[in-house]
Write a structure and sequence with these properties.
Strand order of the largest sheet: 1-6-5-2
Largest sheet: 4 strands, mixed
Radius of gyration: 33 Å
Helix content: 10-25%
Order of helices and strands: EHEHEEEEH
Number of strands: 6
Strand content: 15-25%
Shape: elongated
Mean pLDDT: 79
């Protein structure tokens, strides 16, 4: 007995029907046809008309679309694939933060980043670039009013010994 590989990848999308159509064509999959189930649920009054749309030439769920591998089994009543499947679900807003992926904190509910901080107020003296430059004598004025200039200590070059 051969067992079918079964997995479902759920992907957030602003336009699930366009994404399902694109990936079905790119991967050689087929877009799932849920129209028989949708028609039956609409006629029974179980779902509102607003929950549906027309996509790929048939009735479809407004916020969901899926593509499945053509060789894998599927439910003939609902059109849902039981094997390799990509499910695209509509999300109202674009992703704004978080790392996404497994446990990345992205996706729905991701918070918007805080506004940028205002620049710090200007200072009268620039911050030292290196700890050597912070020596108090380096910035102390001389008696004649000019700034004191101290030469920086030179690094001694020691040649490497050969092995």
């Amino acid at each position: 007995m051969t067992q079918t590989l079964s997995w479902k990848l759920v992907i957030d999308s602003a336009d699930p029907h366009a994404q399902a159509g694109f990936w079905a064509e790119a991967l050689g999959y087929v877009v799932e046809d849920n129209s028989p189930l949708i028609e039956r649920l609409l006629s029974a009054g179980a779902v509102p008309e607003a929950a549906t749309t027309h996509a790929h030439g048939r009735r479809a769920w407004r916020d969901l679309a899926a593509a499945r591998h053509p060789d894998d089994p599927y439910d003939e009543v609902s059109g849902t694939g039981h094997g390799r499947r990509l499910l695209f679900q509509r999300v109202p807003e674009p992703k704004t933060g978080g790392g996404g992926g497994a446990g990345g904190g992205g996706g729905r509910g991701a918070h918007t980043p805080p506004p940028p901080r205002p620049p710090p107020p200007p200072t009268t003296t620039p911050a030292p670039l290196h700890p050597r430059d912070a020596h108090p004598a380096a910035s102390a004025p001389r008696r004649d009013g000019r700034a004191a200039v101290h030469p920086r200590p030179q690094r001694r070059h020691t040649p490497r010994r050969r092995r």
